[in-house]
Amino acid sequence: MKKIFLYLSATCISLICRAEPLGNSYAQISPEGEVAVASVSPEATRIAMDVVARGGNAIDAAIAAAFTLGVVDGHNSGIGGGCFILVRMADGRIFAIDGREMAPAAATRDMFVVNGIANPELSRTGALASGIPGSVAAFDKLQKLGGKLKFRDVILPAAELAEQGFSISPALAERIAATAGNLAKFPASAAIYLDKNNKPLPAFSLLQQKDLAGTYRAIAKQGPDYFYRGDFAKKTSRWMAANNGLITSKDFANYQVKMRKPIVSEFAGYTLYGFPPPSSGGMHVAQILNILEQFELDKLAPAERYHLIAEAMKFAFADRAHWLGDGDFTKVPLSLTDKRYAQIIAQKISLEKATADIAHGNPDVDIQHLMNKHTTHIAAADLEGNWVAITSTVNTSFGSKVVIPGTGVVLNNQMDDFSAQVGAANAFVLVGSDANAIAARKRPLSSMSPTLVFKNGEPVMTLGAAGGPTIISQVVQTLLYSLNDSMPVEKAMAQARIHQQWNPNLLFVEAAMPIEIQQALQKKGHNLKVWPTMGASQAIQLRDGKLVPVAEPRVILQNQRAN
Ligand code: GLY
Question: DSSP H helical segments within 439-552, as ranges?
Fold first, then answer.
């Protein structure tokens, strides 16, 4: 067995490795083993499996989980946000469904610039922060492409849960408490998440969302038209008009799901399908792995290997800042994923010393609190051959913090993922160029990286992650360890993670990384920032003909501790 494999196995987060990653309430397989689902929520996974019991396939299950997450995990995702979906259908067709938010028609390049400086408050909280949500249209598209059930069948169980209520998890309670000040600014948001004295609802109290249940039921009855042309669009545009927002009924009516061409690349004998712009995920997952394979990975000591991964990430994220944006508005060079370009970058990387960052400023801010606290990923697969990867988000916790009165729907703050100004950092301290400048009907750049993996043309894995730009890093590391090092995916996910996004020029490492490796990385010139844990990935792997779903061990462990 390879040296690196043994070493990394030994350095995996010991508690995480002891957590039970298979067949738990977050990652389930149907009784006959024909459908598997993994999500960050036992309720979402349970409802997905209920839908399977009623004849649904992996596509139905994934959509049911997504709607449920909008109820129980609404700080991360929901129908007020957007998503990217990669799906491999039972008949072999592969689709990349772009349900990313669109800027309203009245959006302008400098809409967040006040007195010459981008004002992050405007792009993160309140009426101007939201793009037109795309998730409802994208889920409907997916359902029509390959679901066995009707759209209403995958929505109504979540509506029921919203109506009946559920016990607030410690993680949700922590997010409500952390954002209570901003939620209090919007009466419909406060009415859901705060008590009569504007105090955050505590963990284990009952959260009922009757308005959200009503919205779900109306979509179940009238289809996406309710959302894009009916009452929901009208209520939202009325609220926007009264609150200096830009979104109109026409913006809703003009929203379109886009069918994109996936980014296809090869790594370690596998074929990877990633999501193209307006996500940066597919491009940079492919680019980083292309750079890594220029080196004799199996001969490297662990610190050298982590150093190399960090350097490859740094070069890729520098390219992200310069080149990436919505491909409908800017020319994104596809050659970023060319193996020859990876060779050029590889020649710039020294195994001895971290490359100095010379191009941009490096604000040394702590962004750890953001990286684990938003977005969600759902993995679903069935033995008929449907493989689904959905990454869905309202952006930062509770998005814009706005709930449109009478709907229960939290609107995203995805406008913050644009570059409000060249060089201005977004919530994740990512900077961008003109390629990601705001324009009417443009989609903001994303890091979401739903990914499908094939061997000899057959699907063998679906995966993705949550956690801002660490999504790219998580997916890279899971693929590296599982495909190159042949680790079972649950072990690959349990390895200590790192993240380097070029700006700030810091190497984020999980605390589980052995101290001697941390010291060796510092010696090579990396400026380390240690985080307790990083990210939330979900995956399903085909092993010996069986579907193996894996939910993020860090999330399971944190929830076990909190309970
Ligand atoms: N809103 C985070 C992302 O799309 O990357």
Answer: 470-479, 489-494, 515-523
CB 400 within 8 A of CB 482: no
Choose which residue among 283, 371, 448, 449 to substitute to test ligand 1 binding: the one with the highest number of ligand atoms within 8 A of its C-beta.
448
pLDDT greater than 60 at residue 260? yes
Q: How far apart are CA 489 and CA 483, in angstroms?
A: 9
Instruction: Report the distance separating Cα 469 and Cα 472, nearest Å.
Output: 6
User: How far is 406 from 185, CA to CA, in rounded Å?
Assistant: 16
Mean pLDDT of the 56-61 span: 98
Among protein residues, the one whose CA lies closest to atom 4 of ligand 1 = 446
Supply the residue whose CA is at minimum distance from atom 1 of ligand 1.
395
Interval between CA 392 and ligand 1 midpoint (Å):
9
Q: What is the pLDDT of residues 73-98, one digit of tens each?
A: 999 999 999 999 999 999 999 999 99
What are the tens digits of pLDDT across the range 183-227?
Answer: 999 999 999 999 999 999 999 999 999 999 999 999 999 999 999
Q: What is the pLDDT of residue 311?
A: 96
Confidence category of residue 23, pLDDT binned at 50, 70, 90: low
CA dihedral of 265, 317, 175, 65, whole degrees rounded to 10: -10
Q: Is the CB of 472 under 6 A from ligand 1?
A: no
Average predicted confidence (pLDDT) for the chain: 92
Would the CB of 417 count as within 6 Å of ligand 1?
Answer: yes
* 476/314 Cα distance (integer angstroms): 13
* Lateral strand order in the sheet of 458-466: 263-267, 270-274, 451-455, 458-466, 536-543, 546-550
Determine contact, residues 392/81, Cβ cutoff 8 Å: yes
Q: For residues 133 and 124, give the distance between their C-alpha atoms in angstroms, rounded to a whole number.
A: 15
Predicted confidence band at 506 (pLDDT cuts at 50, 70, 90)? very high
Ligand 1 centre distance from Cα of residue 331 (Å)? 20
Cβ burial of 314 (10 Å; 0-12, 13-18, 19+) is buried
Tokens of 456: 């000899």
- Pick from 449, 413, 418: which is nearest to 435 by CA? 418
DSSP structure class, residue 446: B
pTM of the model: 0.94
Ligand 1 centroid–CA 79 distance in Å is 15
Residues with Cβ within 8 Å of 515's Cβ and at least 6 positions away in sequence, in order, are none
- Rounded Cα distance between 99 and 253, Å, is 14
> What are the residue numbers of the active site?
375
User: Residue 235, class by beta-carbon neighbours within 10 Å (0-12 exposed, 13-18 middle, 19+ buried)?
Assistant: middle
Which H or E element spans position 299? none
Q: How far is the CA of 183 from the centre of ligand 1 (A)?
A: 21
Q: Which residue has the CA at smallest separation from atom 3 of ligand 1? A: 446
Task: Return the DSSP state at 167.
Answer: E
Q: For residue 426, how far is its CA from the centre of ligand 1 (angstroms)?
A: 10
Residue 468 in contact with ligand 1 by CB distance below 6 A: yes
